[in-house]
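Quick one:
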Amino acid sequence: MRFDDTLFNWLQIQVVAQARPDDQAAADTRDFFELMLTEDHNIAGLRIEKTDETMIHVRYEQEGRSKLKMYPREVGEQLLVDINSNPKYN
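Output:
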């Protein structure tokens, strides 16, 4: 899977896992994407550094360099919104 796709998938499921700490499926899925990023793309220190009104800031290290990728908050939180709006998952 491409790096950008994997990082974005990790971000969305990380947002879900943080908001739903008892959701084991979310935690397992987050761990899966994190493993892909670590093993396939040599990422370390992956974390959401901060969330402001409009953006989610993702910090990571790759090839010994600290990098920052920013995503629109609305896009990063869309999976959580979709899950919360579906009564099947609540």
